[in-house]
# Entry
Amino acid sequence: MAFRKDFLWGGACAAHQFEGAWNEGGKGISVADVMTAGDNVLKKPRRITDGVIPGEDYPNHLGVDFYHRYKDDIALLAEMGFKAFRTSIAWTRIFPNGDDEEPNEAGLKFYDSLFDECHKYGIEPVITLSHFEMPFNLAKKYNGFMDRRCIDFFVRFASVCFKRYKGKVKYWMTFNEINNQAELHQMGPHHMVQEGAVLVQEGDDIEYMMYKSAHHELVASALAVKACHEIDPDARIGCMIGMNAVYPASPKPEDVLNAQQAMHQKYYYVEVHARGHYPNHILKKFERKGYDRFILPEDEKILAEGTVDYIGFSYYMSHSTKYTERFGRSFDFSEEDYVRNEHLKVSDWGWQIDPLGLRWCLNWFWDRFEKPMMIVENGFGAYDKYTDENEYYVVDDQYRIDYLSAHIAAMKEAVEYDGVELLGYTMWAPIDIVSASTGEYDKRYGFIYVNYSNDHKGDMSRARKKSFYWYKNVIASNGEELEFKGF
Ligand code: BG6
# Structure
């Protein structure tokens, strides 16, 4: 058998994308609560508003009502045989404004009940502390992680969670896809808000702000790792990297070097998390760009003492990049250098489907860090077609089965042939939820269908898709049976 006996099979969600109840139980407003709905078909991007404005459409306010339905939802996950369930703790349920002195007991209680419910079925909670949902007050009042005080606010939040959930949560992660900002800062303020929760004004040097606020997040993460080890020595805490392989568009040496430099730029974060110091290529870049010294001498010690226990990462697609001479010999990389890889198909959202790339990524991490890994997101967003003509399922999502089984096969090869150490696989997302990038309901990932759509029609009832039965068998066979075997 390729996978270890205690392999953590499961699925992953994030609080802001499915809990709803945005203002219940004393919860404060998060940055996700001020993001409007977008639409892939209409090419309408999400917008960020200055606070919650009446009349705007904020899909994260409702999510899929998990806050009220979690018992039934966890029961469905248990029916599939889940060993692990990854979700996040909404920071604003615990510290509604982020800078509050005391935590909000009602918020803490909610997660107590949720984790107890998971354990009832032998499901291990895998918990992200910050998943694109910083308190809006911190973004507004302090300009998010541009201000070092947010380091302390985050560590206070993390420490409260470690103490409260000691014995209930064994696997933690600090910042979700901390590295997304490496390229998204080039796409404008909206993304900065989602990642580092930094509000950008006209004329700001966004790249500088990205590096500086990301540095403060890295320091906050290292301090949280240290606190976690002190508070609960049995827990393991990792980072979370949004990992998409970057290939050269051709064997032309410039393209090859450009791809390597893109990997530097997009993934230096994991080098800091795992090795405890910045790689030289980034320090050289700071020097070249004349950035002030935001890495304080005491930060170096903190980073060195707060290296992660494992590497959590998401994988959805790969990219190819072409050298355009835009940045000369520095080979800095920009999103605009991406080119379409003709060998790969794309999803309806233009995401390139590349199962083998997952094996490449597992090897990339393992070769560098030799730390255990967990694939904490991998999934297929699609327009599902509802049917009431089958007695078992409401969606025939064979395309989702095809996507996931091909990726699981690739990760199995990485374990079998390459010997990487893999702790688990939590696909994204077992239940249909609100999309993070577009704010849509119609981009569906789940094994469980949620009766709700972009136009706000539906009663939120849950129903099984064909993939539900498929995954159940994958888990039961510990990843040995990847074909659909029936109901
Ligand atoms: C990851 C995020 O980037 O991708 C999730 O961690 C997100 O929050 C997932 O939902 C899929 O992206 P999207 O935009 O399709 O929801």
